[in-house]
User: Which sequence fits this backbone?
């Protein structure tokens, strides 16, 4: 019983735990909208954008900074950036080969993103990421202008 003698209606929904109701609601709202829906209810689903840029050629700290600036700009546009160079700090503590970082970490993430932004600069790794993206159907953007057009064209 609730306050003032009123009783709560007992129905099937009240017996389903809250977290399961939330999951069921999200699933039903996204049904039939494809892998990356833009709208789910009133919330806008943001595009995930992989940032590909130079790392080992030139000053690594400056290269990481370039990607952090891109990360901030993409977030400011309302989307979800993925900056693999944040792993610069992981690499300082637990080093791995460049090949391991690319094949075991970066490329699987490329496949999961909606778009890939290729920032300027010479980079075999970033070029490999872009080629991998194209192979897996992830749209490449070569600069900020391309990214803005790609985001406007998304359903």
Assistant:
């Amino acid at each position: 019983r609730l306050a003032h003698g009123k009783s709560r209606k007992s129905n099937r929904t009240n017996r389903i735990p809250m977290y399961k109701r939330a999951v069921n609601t999200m699933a039903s709202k996204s049904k039939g909208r494809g892998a990356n829906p833009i709208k789910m209810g009133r919330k806008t689903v943001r595009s995930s954008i992989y940032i590909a840029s130079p790392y080992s050629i030139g000053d690594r700290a400056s290269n990481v900074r370039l990607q952090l600036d891109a990360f901030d700009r993409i977030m400011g546009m309302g989307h979800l950036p993925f900056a693999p160079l944040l792993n610069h700090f992981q690499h300082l503590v637990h080093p791995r080969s460049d090949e391991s970082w690319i094949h075991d970490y970066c490329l699987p993430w490329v496949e999961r993103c909606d778009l890939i932004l290729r920032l300027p600069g010479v980079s075999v790794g970033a070029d490999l990421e872009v080629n991998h993206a194209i192979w897996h159907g992830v749209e490449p953007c070569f600069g900020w202008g391309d990214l803005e057009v790609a985001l406007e064209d998304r359903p």
Q: What stands out?
A: DSSP finds seven helices and six strands in the chain.
